[in-house]
């Protein structure tokens, strides 16, 4: 049975100035709350004997609660859930301009209420009531982007560390990869196993309780820090469901925050976001990815190679369009003739005569031995098809070659001769229906260098 200690919020006195200011005005301080102001009553709710409703005796004060179950609350009328039998010490702290006062009461919960722990997030975090009721997690060190930082609020990339994402095992030696975090269902207990040290943000180094810190060779600081045992975790459900820890417990990396938004959760992954408690300009959001103890995730697959040839079956490049054109990989709408493959690029020509799309290549094209580029095209009209090759770093360096589509509404292979071109170009730009506005819908496939 766990008893929670009382929490006393020490608040400095606030000066209250008279509404009318004059030369002889003196600042005055209101009367501090009395013991009766801090009194409270409680009653079991209609929902369950394990859901308790609390009411502060004085509705005119600011009220903060410690429910003794790891959760806290604000307001003069609040409720708290106690899924497990036991005795819990509840503390109410009230405050006004003159100061604060607190009172405590013990409440006894006679028996467990399984309905209050019937939550899929509880099951995923702890293994659930039908399982062991506890589960240990560790940082997913072998996976890219297991740790990183982005803007707060989130930017264009959404909930992802878009400003910096750690590579696999990049933070070895920082004190983070050997830590374990055990979530317990009973009493919502939490153990943080540090193995003696933790990883600490530079801005928080030297600030209690992380006074004893040393710089690491992978950035930021490592701090001597003992295991944090017997703490609690609280699930805060809402639009951004989050987890908050008691005491000095935290996950992975200390950035002066103990509340973690659940970005995603599954049996074998817990991806979390937490806002830096110190940084303000710019405001930062950190990310940490956890896996169950002993579980080895599959490292992220290698990035696709955007180099010729393109058949659009296994690799589907990201295209950039211009001139109001579109470009997307789709199922072949006319699998006949010289092209019976499954996927092709569909491009609907924009209203500009120069409309088209391009793809950036990972390597520069070399025409010393393979001097041509060929592709298959299904065109709604006959006429010119232009390919332009550019250097990504200097788009003023380019070469353009045209080929002629001789037959409409059927697959045809056309050839572009780049003999004598430099080996500078790593951007492939295509202009189907060159020099014609609104030229129609084109299909393109099997782009090869020969």
Entry keywords:
450 residues; five-stranded antiparallel sheet; Jelly Rolls; single chain; 2% helix; 31 strands; eight-stranded antiparallel β-barrel; Immunoglobulin-like
Secondary-structure map with pairings?
Elements: E1 40-44, E2 51-56, E3 62-66, E4 72-74, E5 77-81, E6 86-96, E7 99-109, H1 120-126, E8 134-139, E9 147-151, E10 164-165, E11 180-184, E12 189-193, E13 197-200, E14 213-215, E15 221-224, E16 228-236, E17 242-245, E18 253-254, E19 259-266, E20 269-275, E21 284-292, E22 320-322, E23 328-331, E24 343-348, E25 356-360, E26 372-378, E27 383-391, E28 394-405, E29 411-417, E30 427-431, E31 441-449
Parallel strand pairs: 13-18
Antiparallel strand pairs: 1-2, 2-5, 3-4, 3-6, 6-7, 8-11, 8-21, 9-10, 9-21, 11-12, 12-16, 13-15, 14-15, 16-17, 17-19, 19-20, 20-21, 22-25, 23-24, 24-31, 25-30, 26-29, 26-31, 27-28, 27-30
> In oligomeric terms, what are we looking at?
single chain
Distance N terminus to C terminus?
76 Å
Portion of residues in beta strands equals 35-45%
Mean pLDDT: 89
Q: Number of DSSP helices? A: 1
Shape estimate: elongated
Tell me the helix content: under 10%
Number of distinct beta strands: 31
* Structural class category: mainly beta
What is the C-alpha radius of gyration, as a whole number of Å? Answer: 32 Å
The side-by-side strand order for the widest beta sheet comes to: 8-11-12-16-17-19-20-21
The domain tally reads 3
Q: Any low-confidence stretches, pLDDT <50, length ≥5?
A: 1-28
Largest sheet: 8 strands, antiparallel, barrel
């Amino acid at each position: 049975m766990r008893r929670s200690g009382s929490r006393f919020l020490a608040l400095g006195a606030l000066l209250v100035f008279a509404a009318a200011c004059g030369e002889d005005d003196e600042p005055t301080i209101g009367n501090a709350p009395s013991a009766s102001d801090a009194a409270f009553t409680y009653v079991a709710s209609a929902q369950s004997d394990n859901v308790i409703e609390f009411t502060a005796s004085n509705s005119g004060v600011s009220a903060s609660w410690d429910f003794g179950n790891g959760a806290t609350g604000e307001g003069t009328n609040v409720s708290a859930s106690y899924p497990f039998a036991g005795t819990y010490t509840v503390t109410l702290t009230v405050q006004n301009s003159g100061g604060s006062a607190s009172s405590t009461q013990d409440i006894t919960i006679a028996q467990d209420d399984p309905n209050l722990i019937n939550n899929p997030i509880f099951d995923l975090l702890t293994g659930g009531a039908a399982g062991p009721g506890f589960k240990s997690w560790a940082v997913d060190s072998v996976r890219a982007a297991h740790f990183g930082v982005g803007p707060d609020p989130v930017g264009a990339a959404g909930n992802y560390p878009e400003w910096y994402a750690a590579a696999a095992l990049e933070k070895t030696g920082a004190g983070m990869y050997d830590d374990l975090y055990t979530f317990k269902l009973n009493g919502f207990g939490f153990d943080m196993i540090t193995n003696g040290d933790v990883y600490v943000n530079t801005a928080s180094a030297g600030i209690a309780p992380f006074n004893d810190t040393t710089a690491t060779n992978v950035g930021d600081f490592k701090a001597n820090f003992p295991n944090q045992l017997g703490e609690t975790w609280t699930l805060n459900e809402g639009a951004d469901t989050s987890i908050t820890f008691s005491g000095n417990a935290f996950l992975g990396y200390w950035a002066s925050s103990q509340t973690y938004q659940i970005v995603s959760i599954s049996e074998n992954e817990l991806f979390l976001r937490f806002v830096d408690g110190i940084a303000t300009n710019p405001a930062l959001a950190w990310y940490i990815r956890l896996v169950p103890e002993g579980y080895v995730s599959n490292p992220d697959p290698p990035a696709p190679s955007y180099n010729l040839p393109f058949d659009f079956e296994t690799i589907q490049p990201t295209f950039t369009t211009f001139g109001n054109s579109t470009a997307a990989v789709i199922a072949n709408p006319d699998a006949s003739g010289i092209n019976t493959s499954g996927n092709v690029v569909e491009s609907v020509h924009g209203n500009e005569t120069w409309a088209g799309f391009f793809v950036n290549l990972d390597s520069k094209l070399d025409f010393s031995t393979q001097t041509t580029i060929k592709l298959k095209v299904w065109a709604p009209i006959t006429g010119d098809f232009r390919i332009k090759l550019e250097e990504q770093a200097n788009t003023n360096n380019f070469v353009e070659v045209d080929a002629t589509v001789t037959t409409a509404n059927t697959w045809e292979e056309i050839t572009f001769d780049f003999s004598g071109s430099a080996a500078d170009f790593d951007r492939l730009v295509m202009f189907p229906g060159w020099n014609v506005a609104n030229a129609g819908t084109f299909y393109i496939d099997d782009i090869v260098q020969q």
